[in-house]
Amino acid sequence: MKTSLRPLAQTATSILLLTALAACASGPRGPSNAVIARALVSAPGAAQPSTIVSTELAFAREAQERGQFVAGTDFAAPGALIHGSNGPVAYAAVVSALQASGISSNWETRAVVMSCDGEIALSQGRFVDQDGFVGNYVTTWVRQGDGAYKWTYDVAGRDDPQPPPRAQIEDGDIVVTSIDSIEGLVATCPRRDESVPPPPAIPIGEDGATDAQLSRDGTLRWRWEHRAGGVKYVTAEYFYEGQWLTAIEESLASPLASSAEE
User: Which of 22, 85, 192, 200 has a CB 3.0–4.6 Å from the CB of 68, allowing a cystine?
Assistant: First the structure.
């Protein structure tokens, strides 16, 4: 578990040091299937956040059995991108370098947001890497022709600064473990005689690469930016009960921009 996160090749593995696509050998410490069902089964229509959570758990199980980057390939959609310190790159172009790197991480989903028709979903959560550093991740999932979900974009970054170490547990202490809860956000489906208003205009921000995607039903928009200093920005907005709301917004430091990496 103490494999170094330092890149083996600057142009390859440094891009992907903090990916949250992989699970370590012990597997993800996520919620049970029963908890997922209780928390998310009430979602209406085709959009079921529990499907995304169960897909992430299945991905993690395969990662344990076959290797994390083999599993990453199996669950990737054609053209899947991973966002690292130099911007998004094709996963297929760097997976070989990742397999040789020994990188691993363990993650758990905290929130899922979906378009009304269930075509696009984003998951957001926390990860811990093999060196014990923690951070946030965001993954975009797109429903395929067979109904399964494949990931198309992934980004992650360590907390900077890192949270303080946990206090030592002593005899007699009452310990409360993490609560199994996942927030499921589903866009409102418009009525047949209604149209979804366009999402808010994208603000003019820092110079840098960016891309935005809108679901086919017009109820969810997500976008990424690669900002100065290697900051990886991602946000998702969804249409809910007549207004556009922000579901996800993350500014994640690249490894070389993080004091924890120095």
Answer: 22
Tell me how far CA of residue 109 lies from CA of 54, 142, 145, 257, 261, in angstroms.
10, 17, 25, 25, 24
pTM of the model: 0.78
- Identity of the residue numbered 90: A
Spatial neighbors of 187 by CB under 8 A, at least 6 apart, are 47, 113, 114, 115, 116, 215, 217, 219, 220, 238, 239, 240
pLDDT in tens, 75-117: 999 999 999 889 999 999 999 988 888 777 888 899 999 999 9
What are phi and psi for residue 190, nearest 5 degrees? -70, 155
**Dihedral of the alpha carbons of 114, 119, 124, 127, in degrees to the nearest 10:** 150
111-127 pLDDT per residue, tens: 999 999 999 999 999 98
User: Identity (one letter) of the amino acid at 243?
Assistant: Q
Dist. CA 64–CA 102, nearest whole Å: 14
Q: Report how far residue 114's alpha carbon sits from residue 121's, in angstroms, rounded to the nearest whole number.
A: 4
Both tokens assigned to 118:
């269930």
Burial of 191 by CB count in 10 Å (0-12 exposed, 13-18 middle, 19+ buried)? Answer: exposed
